[in-house]
Design goal:
Monomer. It catalyses: 4 Cu(+) + O2 + 4 H(+) = 4 Cu(2+) + 2 H2O. With 478 residues, this protein is mainly beta. It has three domains: 181 residues, Immunoglobulin-like (Sandwich); 130 residues, Cupredoxins -  blue copper proteins (Immunoglobulin-like), CATH 2.60.40.420; 127 residues, Cupredoxins -  blue copper proteins (Immunoglobulin-like, Sandwich). The strands form six sheets. Strands 12-11-10-14-19-16-17 form a seven-stranded mixed beta sheet, with no helix packed on it. Strands 23-22-25-30-27-28 form a six-stranded mixed beta sheet. Strands 1, 2, 3, 5 and 7 form a five-stranded mixed beta sheet that branches. Strand 27 and strand 28 form a beta hairpin. The radius of gyration is 21 Å and the shape is globular. The two termini are 35 Å apart.
Length: 478
């Protein structure tokens, strides 16, 4: 459980909320000068000079082919990583490296991943955004004991999308993910592959997160407001060489608790997908907002830049995050179609539910609540018949305190309908599983529960909020 005093918690919530509230609408592009803004906390180890380290790209795991099934084996282990100059930071890893490998799956072809827990504590794995049976979802109490292995089988029955996997162990989700248990899981399908979008080396996953370090380079899991060092694929303000051509950029906000406001200075960016895959059509963007757990896919045409120029991905409050160094012009047969494919038709909703996320701050430690109750893994909060389409009114009940929350639903994607009666923002477009909810506001979402039977979680995806109780569960019944 997060070890925050009540005052630390209040300060953290207000600071994080303030950053998120700036970002709900489109803004003019901001130009951020290269520098060290936001990359070190007072009293911490020094960050590297900006843009001196190359951003790594996560390696793609090769599966073992077993008939119609792909098998992977991933150890969950303690390790070290060089994140800051001359220091080794203790971390948790999927595999040997802090930057977890990518699993690239195919629609309709199941995947089994054997995770071996080499930690000295329990953990588990949740495929965030995955439509999976309840026993494969990483229920908070369904854990892998130290020294044990667990097979997770994912059917991959959904359309192409960028998902991710992370720890979901009860009251340990935040700390485990913060220490490094986060990685990409990408589903591809033939329809998307035939569209001509950039592929191969020109399809680049970028995991964004924040961190705080002490003077020895250790990760500090404390006050979220002090996590001022931003990492892109595990590096602080790295550079990444690109050819002067189109790239597909898959962005993931893997921060345990935080919001990124992103601008790209020097090249146009076009959003092509959100959490659940492609939008109906590409959308030019001047800026993006990503809360914890969200994914956004872009196509950036560096062919419109002069070779030798530099393009900055920045957060106006956190500073430059990543610099793209544009190289020579090369052949480019990729394209961005004017239209992709329509989203699934919204069925008529037959039920409406209210969900309120809030805190109880009356005691010595904060307690997270959903509809006034803290999480109880033995309690079912909503019983839903399979095949039902519902509208959920999800409210941030902490308007007076100014806390920011976001909302994540397991099992299925949803569509954002509106925000407190106003139209949804560009950040809400497409199929979603995670959505930002500013203090005192309500987001109306619609979902169809046509997948599997069993118990699934829904919760605030600021993991420290969920760890102290801001989580509930639904049961899908025949």
């Amino acid at each position: 459980m997060p070890n925050l005093t009540r005052m630390q918690f209040l300060a953290a919530g207000t600071a994080v909320a303030g950053g998120g509230l700036l970002a709900l609408g489109e803004r003019e592009p901001a130009t951020a000068a290269a520098g060290t803004k936001g990359v070190a906390t007072a009293g911490s180890a020094a960050a590297p000079a900006p843009f001196t380290e190359r951003m790594p790209v996560p390696r793609v795991l090769e599966p073992e082919r077993d008939g119609g099934l792909d098998r992977y084996r991933i150890p969950i282990r303690p390790g070290t990583a060089q994140i800051l100059p001359g220091l080794q930071t203790p971390v948790y890893t999927y595999g040997p490296d802090f930057l977890a490998p990518v699993i690239r799956a195919r629609t309709g072809r199941p995947v089994t991943v054997t995770f071996a827990n080499l930690l000295d504590e329990v953990t588990n794995v949740h495929l965030h955004g995955g439509h999976v049976p309840a026993g494969m979802d990483g229920h908070p109490l369904d854990v892998i004991q130290p020294g044990a292995k667990r097979d997770y089988t994912y059917p991959n029955g959904q359309r192409a999308s960028t998902l991710w996997f992370h720890s979901h162990a009860h009251m340990m989700e935040g700390e485990h993910t913060y220490k490094g248990l986060h990685g990409f899981y990408i589903i591809e399908d033939p329809v998307e592959r035939g569209m001509g979008l950039p592929t191969g080396d020109y399809d680049v996953p970028i995991l964004l997160r924040d961190a705080q370090f002490d003077a020895a380079g250790n990760l500090v899991f404390g006050n979220p407001a002090l996590r001022t060092t931003v990492l892109a694929n595990g590096k602080v303000q790295p550079y990444f060489p690109v050819e002067a051509r189109k790239y597909r950029i898959r962005l993931l906000n893997a921060a345990v608790e935080g919001v990124f406001q992103l601008t790209l200075d020097g090249a146009p960016m076009v959003q092509i997908a959100s959490d659940g895959g492609l939008l109906p059509a590409p959308v030019p963007r001047t800026d993006l907002t990503m809360c914890s757990g969200e994914r956004v896919e872009l196509v950036v045409d560096f062919g419109r830049c002069e070779p030798g120029s530099q393009v900055l991905l920045s957060d106006p409050t956190r500073g430059p995050v990543l610099r793209f160094d544009v190289g020579p012009r090369t052949g480019d047969d990729s394209r961005v179609p004017d239209r992709f494919r329509p989203l699934p038709v919204l069925p008529r909703a037959t039920n409406t539910r209210d969900v309120v996320l809030s805190f109880d701050l009356s005691g010595p430690q904060p307690v997270g609540l959903v509809n006034g109750r803290p999480y109880d893994p033995n309690r079912v909060d909503f019983v839903i018949r399979r095949g039902t389409t519902e509208i959920w009114n999800v409210t941030n009940g902490d308007g007076a305190m100014g806390f920011l929350h976001d909302f994540h639903m397991h099992l299925t994607m949803f569509r954002v309908l509106d925000r407190t009666g106003a139209p949804m923002t560009p950040n809400d477009a497409g199929l979603k599983d995670t959505v930002l909810i500013p203090p005192g506001t309500t987001v109306r979402v619609q979902a169809t529960f046509d997948g599997f039977l069993g118990r699934y979680a829904y919760h605030c995806h600021f993991m420290e909020h969920a760890d102290v109780g801001m989580m509930a569960q639904m049961e899908i019944v025949p």
